[in-house]
Amino acid sequence: MSFEQLKNIIDFNKEQANLHPIDEDLENNLCPYCAWPLDTNSKGEKSCPVCGRVYK
């Protein structure tokens, strides 16, 4: 993989992060990966019932 390809990937990821910030989803209680409503467990952590990711 060339330097130019890596730079393009990094630039693309930065653009995507600016278009749809993960923090905004978490504030709305949605999983940033699958947009499914998050559940809250007894420890106060939020988790996605679909993909299984846990957010603190």
By helix and strand content, what is the structural category? alpha+beta
Count the domains: 1
Q: What order do the SSEs take from the amino end to the carboxyl end, as H and E? A: HHEEE
Shape: elongated
* Total strand segments: 3
Low-confidence stretches: none
Strand content: 5-15%
> Mean pLDDT, as a whole number?
83
The biggest beta sheet, please?
A: 3 strands, antiparallel
Helix fraction bin: 40-55%
Distance between the termini: 35 Å
Count every helix, treating DSSP H or I runs of 4 or more residues as helices: 2
What strand line-up does the widest sheet have?
A: 1-2-3
Based on CA atoms alone, the radius of gyration comes out at: 15 Å
Structure description:
The radius of gyration is 15 Å and the shape is elongated. It has one domain (3-55). With 56 residues, the chain is of the alpha+beta class. A hairpin with a 5-residue loop joins β1 and β2 (46-47). It is built from two helices and three strands. The longest helix is centred in the first third of the chain and has 17 residues, at 3-19. The mean pLDDT is 83. It has helices spanning 3-19, 22-27, and strands spanning 39-40, 46-47, 54-55.
